[in-house]
Amino acid sequence: KVNDAAQAVTAAEEAEEKLRGELAAAGVDPALRRLLDAHGERERLAGEASTIAATLTQAEKEHTKAASALTKARTEAKQAHQALEDAREAYQAAVATDRAAALRPHLRVGDACPVCTQTVTTMPVVPATRHDSTVAAAEKAGKAAKKRAEAADAAVEHRDRAARELDRNLAGARAHVEQIQGRLTALEERLDGAPGPDALRRD
After folding, report:
1. Residue 203: pLDDT above 70?
2. Who wins on pLDDT, 159 or 19?
3. Distance of alpha carbon 173 from alpha carbon 167, whole angstroms
4. How far is CA 60 from CA 53, 57, 141, 156, in A?
5. Model-level pTM greater than 0.90?
C-alpha cells in the first residue's frame, strides 16, 4: 500500500508538471492557472496523505510492540533483582552456618558461647552436609544471579532506547499527518464551488 501511494504521488506530480508546461505554452489566464495548480496540489497532497497514513499505522504498531517489550523487560529485571537478593541472603545464611560449624568443636556444655556469651546447655547438631560446599554453592548461585540481573538491566536499557526512538518517529509521523491535513483543508476551502480540473482544461 505504501508503494502504491508513493507511485500515485509521483504520477500526480508528473501530471501537474506536464499541465503547467502546457498551460504556459498556451498562454492560459493566470487565475485559471492558479485554480488548476490548486487542483494539482490537492491531488498530490491526497496521495502524500495516503502514504503518510500507512507510515503512521506502521509506526503505531511498532510503538505498541516496543512498549510491550519494554514492560516485559522491566518485569524480568525486577524478578532477576529479587532472585539476586534471595541469593545474597542464602549466601549470608550459608556463611553464618559455616561459622557456627567452625565453633562447634570448641563448645562445651556449661561453658559460655563465644558468639552470644550465653551458657551452652546442649550441643548443636552438626549438619551432614559439609559447610564449605554449601558456602561455595551459595556463592556460585549468587554470581549467576548477579549476571542475570545485569543482563536484565541491559535489556531494559536497550528496550527503553528503542521505545524512545519510536516515540520520536511516531510524534513526527503524527505531526506530518496534521500538516498535510491542514493544507488539504485549506485547499478544499479554496476550491469549494470552483470548476473541476477537467472543466477548467476545456475552458
Report:
1. no
2. 159
3. 10
4. 11, 5, 41, 21
5. no
